[in-house]
Amino acid sequence: MPTASSSSFDHLMMRRALDLARLGEGHTRPNPLVGCVITHEDRILGEGWHRQYGGPHAEVNAVAAVTEPHLLSQSRVYVTLEPCSHFGKTPPCADLLIEKQVAEVVICNLDPNPLVAGRGIARLREAGIQVETGVLEAEGRWLNRRFFTFQEQQRPYVVLKWAETADGYLAGPYFQPVAISGELARLAVHQWRAEEHAILVGTRTALHDNPRLNVREWPGPDPIRLVIDKNLSLPPTHHLFDGSQPTIVYTYRERASKDNLTFTTLSQAEDLFPQILQSLQQQQVQSVLVEGGPTVLNSLLKDGLWDEARVIRSARRLGGGVAAPHIGLTGLHEQFRLGEDEVFVYLK
């Protein structure tokens, strides 16, 4: 809850800061998306966002954009995440705001990172700066849901995705690939790939579909490719092994890694997916889009190791084949159309 009553202007400026933060999507991970707006007497002095990992933070870019620096000491700063208080790739943003002697700081979300976790706010208040928190808190948590899940649950944010026919199938008999969704849905999937840090498929999907798992139809970075190949049975000529983007193969066997292709050996004595998620967490992989088949999807659903599911439902009917996972209506968050297809978004 906000620490003080916030005005409609506060909400407007924080919403602007959240919009700015979104401009960094796909480029800041594993850092969060952060936007900042600096105002003076209901007028914007400067604004900025965290553009890329390792680069200046939102507050630094916003301060640099101010053309009337003499007004900073009378300014109100809106920032979507608690200013950092530690030295990382860049100096602490809390120190910058203290140095500029800003009058007030309005914060959307507290930073759960143990290196920050309230220390930024404490430092600002100790310097005599008025601080308000919790403005548009729910919107901020949704924007940075990957970051918050990674920090609070110590695992990547997991997005399940599949396309199914109107009669509940996601492939033909014997896993024969079938074009189910339309052109707009295909574009949306490439957008989703650009938004996530990694993309995962199982052995059967890799074998039958021979996917590239890259972003060809949407601007943005390619995700890290993840494939489960327990016995190293996939043909080395498949696209996943072409070295075109970082790829991790999860296996029970030993094999030497090479450029852009890493073989990670898992224990057969332990559950598969907790090991994979732990390995990804250790590598700072913040989110995973799962485009696997029914075995992978049903396992993650059964074990509760998912956060969001996006189901593309076509009007097409197959009359038989490989059944799609059943998720029901529990947790339905959003429903919309993409051409002739319907998309259902579920939250766990």
List the helices and strands and how they pair.
Blueprint (H helix, E strand, L loop, with lengths): L7 H15 L12 E6 L2 E7 L8 H7 L11 E6 L11 H7 L4 E6 L9 H8 L3 E4 L3 H7 L1 H9 L3 E8 L4 E3 L11 H13 L2 E4 L1 H7 L14 E5 L18 E5 L9 E5 L6 H11 L4 E4 L3 H10 L4 E6 L8 E2 L8 E7 L2 E7 L1
Parallel strand pairs: 3-4, 4-5, 6-12, 6-13, 8-9, 8-12, 9-10, 10-11
Antiparallel strand pairs: 1-2, 1-3, 7-14, 13-16, 15-16
Helix pairs in contact: 3-4
InterPro entries: APOBEC/CMP_deaminase_Zn-bd, CMP_dCMP_dom, Cytidine_deaminase-like, DHFR-like_dom_sf, Eubact_RibD, RibDG_C, Riboflavin_Biosynth_HTPR
Pathway: Cofactor biosynthesis; riboflavin biosynthesis; 5-amino-6-(D-ribitylamino)uracil from GTP: step 3/4; Cofactor biosynthesis; riboflavin biosynthesis; 5-amino-6-(D-ribitylamino)uracil from GTP: step 2/4
Cofactor: Zn(2+)
Quick description:
With 348 residues, the chain is α/β, with parallel strands linked by helices. The protein folds into 2 domains: 8-144, 3-Layer(aba) Sandwich (Cytidine Deaminase, domain 2), CATH 3.40.140.10; 154-347, Dihydrofolate Reductase, subunit A (3-Layer(aba) Sandwich). Helix content is 27%, strand content 24%.
How does this model look, in words?
There is one protein chain. By secondary structure, the chain is of the alpha/beta class. It has two domains: 137 residues, Cytidine Deaminase, domain 2 (3-Layer(aba) Sandwich), CATH 3.40.140; 194 residues, Dihydrofolate Reductase, subunit A (3-Layer(aba) Sandwich), CATH 3.40.430. 27% of the residues lie in helices and 24% in strands. It has ten helices and 16 strands. The strands form three sheets. The chain has a nine-stranded mixed β-sheet. Helix 3 links the parallel strand 3 and strand 4. The two termini are 23 Å apart. The relative contact order is 0.12. The N terminus is likely disordered. InterPro entries: APOBEC/CMP_deaminase_Zn-bd, CMP_dCMP_dom, Cytidine_deaminase-like, DHFR-like_dom_sf, Eubact_RibD, RibDG_C, Riboflavin_Biosynth_HTPR. It holds the Pfam family RibD_C. Its EC number is 3.5.4.26, 1.1.1.193. It catalyses: 5-amino-6-(5-phospho-D-ribitylamino)uracil + NADP(+) = 5-amino-6-(5-phospho-D-ribosylamino)uracil + NADPH + H(+); 2,5-diamino-6-hydroxy-4-(5-phosphoribosylamino)-pyrimidine + H2O + H(+) = 5-amino-6-(5-phospho-D-ribosylamino)uracil + NH4(+). Pathway: Cofactor biosynthesis; riboflavin biosynthesis; 5-amino-6-(D-ribitylamino)uracil from GTP: step 3/4; Cofactor biosynthesis; riboflavin biosynthesis; 5-amino-6-(D-ribitylamino)uracil from GTP: step 2/4.
